[in-house]
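Input record (one chain):
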Amino acid sequence: MSVQYRTPMLKSRRQFMSGIGAAGLALLAAPALAEESVDLGLPGGGGERSLTAAFPQKGRMILQRTRPPLLETPFEVFDQGVLTPNDRFFVRWHWANIPTEIDAAAFRLKVRGEVTTGLDLSLNDLLAMPPYEIIAVNQCSGNSRGLFQPRVAGAQWGNGAMGNARWTGVRLKDVLDRARVKPGAVSVRFNGLDQQVVPEAPDFMKSLSIDHARDGEVMIAYAMNGEQLPLLNGFPLRLIVPGWYSTYWVKMLNDIEVLAQPDDGFWMTKAYLIPDTPFAAVKPGESGYKSIPINRMLPRSFVTNRRDGEQAAAGAPLELRGVAFGGDAGVRSVEVSADDGVTWQPAVLGKDEGKYSFRRWTASFTPGRGQHRIMARCTSEKGEVQPTESYWNGSGFMRNVIETIRINAV
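The corresponding structure, as predicted from the sequence alone:
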């Protein structure tokens, strides 16, 4: 598998505008599996995964699946900075039929449906529009699914099906305004260049309400951390829906359809549904509850510089670092416990990069001899707090329980 660019990565918008029209890339042979592996420590066992750097534009990643590509970010990457590097950013596709080559000069984004003026936009057309930029966490709905007990079906992710990036592009609102949305429009549906493997399978399409689509924050990105989007992360365009789960962040976006009614497609009415309950929680075997499409994210926090089971020196200060995010709101506070949640101390928050971004935090404590259970708890600006109880649903969605690691002081 290889990627070929006919222009270099472009750092400035002027350079981007002058070069992207000639850019192209190719996805060729399937990668060989690496011999090196990592154990995700899943409670039900079976957490060993291969590590591979064989995918295009990707460094060493945890291989969850080859077709379609599911690549998890090794957790130590999150300790390296608030932004997740493009080459270590997680990858999740629904269908294996991904374009193997994209000619950026010939690419077009169509806007159609309940609009007065249908659009057929080139990348240069989008680059000529007023730019918009936001830092936002992209998190798979099933991030941490492998930690659910009882175990549920689906990709058995650890905690690395997430990433934080600076996204550059244009507001979706500006594009829709150019198309002149007709009165009475209800929703906006998004489609990408990936295709189902068999004709009878449902094309992967997601939708937002018209008000959400035009809120001025939802955007169409052509750059990620100052570079062109990697192929596996959606080149040449990706929908960005800050504060909502990754299922809505349609990759290789090439079609926007404004609808006069709610989207009744498979991926909005049959898949990615959650129980309409607090924390999307139900009991195993429970039925008869109302379901709704998955939507906004919840607050989470993680220790990033210590591993579960790590040893430390008793009587010496132990420094802790981590990242937190507030879901669809900013981070109000992070607290850390070294005694399994009996007592809590405030962590020191790092720079605020925006309400949808990771936020760094630091703390320290001096452990006595023995085992210590370290917990990190995020409270969002909305006042939502991570729960102490691990909630469950049959899809393994929306885990946001307070995570715990064990430190042995000797």
